[in-house]
Amino acid sequence: MSLPCFTTLCNMLQTNYGLQPTLNISIEESVAMFLRICGHNEVQRDVGLRFGRNQETVQRKFREVLTATELLACDYIRTPTRQELYRIPERLQVDRRYWPYFSGFVEAMDGTHVCVKVKPELQGMYWNRHDNASMNIMAICDLNMLFTYIWNGAPGSCHDTAVLQMAQQSDSEFPLPPSEKYYLVDSGYPNKQEFLAPYRSSRNRVVRYHMSQFYSGPPPRNKHELFNQCHASLRSVIERTFGVWKKKWRIISDFPRYNVHIQKRVVMATVGLHNFIRISNFSDADFADVMTETNINNGDFEHDVCDMDATELADGEYMTQIRDNIANMLWGNQNNR
Asked: What are the backbone angles phi and psi of residue 148, rounded to the nearest 5°?
């Protein structure tokens, strides 16, 4: 982060979230050690050598700053109220690629995996299909690339749909949209009320969805692919948001050094810092880089066929009709140009 952003963060952690200096270590040094660990995934021993501190001191300061940033996250990860979910995002209204077609859109939702260190007896639970131990983090973000909701800590073996069910059943404050509104989700989720998923391929028909397939191939061949292209483009905001988060905080994507309890706390702290940087509006290279990217590899190709049967059964007629109406409008508008 930039120096002005760092200075503001240090002041805020001391003033609002209880982080205090000691006789020998300033707030700035404590925060710098914490950011070094989270941003570069450095081991605490190396951070101690860099700052001239013993490992016990680094560990203590890491925990102190982690606690303070968790409190900051509580203020900066702001879940919208049901009334707020009725509002139409301003950025949506001014973008003619999506408006008025996706008029019910509120935010985008997806899951991502965060590496974690687990005991051998728990590896089966946390082992994902990429052959490593992880937690499946479900997140919702708005068009400003701000995280608005996090379901944190599901084992990596859990499918995205199972994580969503956990969140809805376990969290009484899960931000379910009004009936005429919806989150954009990828093909790992069912197309049901409040969740608008793309058209899926079947065994007899291939329907492209991922942006990379359109960049490297012909334009949409029918209304289903045109819908999927627009859906993927609008939903890619969650992929860009995940991209900035993981690029900036390598502790969540590089070699795992912390157990589930600490890594869950790190997830919330770094998500809070992500939002803090974005809201503070300081110049940031990582956000600037992702805003210029065009080819976002959105989603997981394996969802399209492997998960189709399990999720297609849950399709709701209401959302199927909404999807078809949007596809017909998009296709009709394109043919009238």
From this structure: -115, -15
The total of other beta-carbon atoms located within 10 Å of residue 47's CB is: 22
Q: Are 252 and 116 in contact (CB under 8 A)?
A: no
Can you say whether the dihedral through the CA atoms of 22, 23, 28, 29 is positive or negative? negative
| pLDDT in the model for residue 337 | 64
For residue 321, give Cα distances in angstroms to 121, 188, 192, 196: 46, 20, 11, 11
Residue partners of 288: CB distance under 8 A and separation at least 6: none
Whole-number pLDDT of residue 305: 41
pTM for this prediction:
0.90
Amino acid type, 33: M
Residues 6+ apart with CB under 8 A from 182: 104, 105, 106, 193, 194, 195, 196, 319, 322
* Exposed e or buried b per residue across 197-227, where buried means at least 16 C-beta atoms within 10 angstroms of its C-beta: bbbbbeeeeebbbbbbbbeeeeebeebbbbb
What are the tens digits of pLDDT across the range 257-303?
A: 889 999 999 999 999 999 999 999 888 888 888 776 644 554 444 44
Nearest to 225 by CA among 211, 208, 213: 208
Side chain identity at residue 332, one-letter code: G
What is the C-alpha separation between 155 and 124, in angstroms, rounded? 9
**Token reading at 78:** 């702001």
